[in-house]
Amino acid sequence: MVLPTRPLGQSAVQITRVGLGTAPLGSTPDWELSWGPHRAEDAVRASATALEQGVNWIDTAPYYGWGRAEELVGTAVQGQRDKVYLFTKCGTVRTAQGAAVEDLSPAGIRRGVEASLRRLRTDYIDLLQFHDPDPHTPIEASWATMQALIREGVVRYGALSNHPPDLIARALRVGPVTALQHQYNLLERAIEAAILPLAQQRGLGVLAWSPLASGFLTAGFALERLDPQDFRRRHRYAHEPAATRLQAVRTQLAALARAHNRPLADLAIAWVLREPVVTGAIMGIRAAREARAMTGGVDWTLTAAEREAIEQVLTVWTDSAS
User: Fold this and answer.
1) Are 265 and 219 in contact (CB under 8 A)?
2) pLDDT tens-digit profile of 27-63?
3) Is residue 57 helix, strand or coil?
4) Which domains are seen in the chain, by residue range?
5) 272 CB contacts (<8 Å, ≥6 apart)?
6) Annotated catalytic residue: which of 63, 64, 157, 184?
7) CA angle (127 as vertex; 51, 62 as ends), nearest 5
8) Which three-class secondary structure state does DSSP give residue 61?
């Protein structure tokens, strides 16, 4: 299957409008963001199915299952590395006590990249992203190391994940930033205030993580069916007052989608991709059947009337949240 592509920022990388997110695939029972038990062979099959659907990029990170996601991706792309873009991250590391901390020191970045290359079973990374800000290392020192890795050919392009505008601006003074990765979906729109305008102004690509709100914006989502250790049971969406408001929003949005014979997930993806500066949406999946449904919202261009109807539904969420 051939899917339409768009350039990622000002790079030579042309990506499909949706990409494979691997946090759910790499999940382990003892990981703090566990999605419940999952077999490695199912993860590899789901990844392969996504690529068969025409998806041409995978977003992963050492943090996802503390290396498990990268290892599974490395297995899934063997024999077709030249057909898929691998995006990973660095900076989030685990302490001896098991806590997650940020280390974007030059030495820490290089250690992380070397480990990622081994797990991914590749000799280069298409897009390396700083996972989260490191309060102890100046971004100038970190981004200079990114530029060195690009010159060395280990990394093709650099990006920033979850970084605020001031750090993005400081990094840009050191060297090019290809893309920004931030949470963006119907329920979480904070990046519309500053990040999206900055990306538009500077010609940066934007990758939206959690476009389906970790599954809360899918028609079949049900808390009672989740594994007891699933982190979504602890999510604020699962508890009042958010739970009741979200149920009302889901019901109305699902009705709008059904009017087009579409599932709620398609509407959620079409809404994220309506924003011109958003290059791609990262869709976390766990099964081949989910991979086969990944591309459903790509060809849906919402009309002005449909966008207005969605905004009207969202007042139930935003008015109560303000």
Assistant:
1) yes
2) 998 899 999 888 899 999 999 999 999 999 999 999 9
3) strand
4) 5-230+264-300 (3.20.20.100)
5) 184, 185, 186, 208, 211, 278, 281
6) 64
7) 85
8) coil
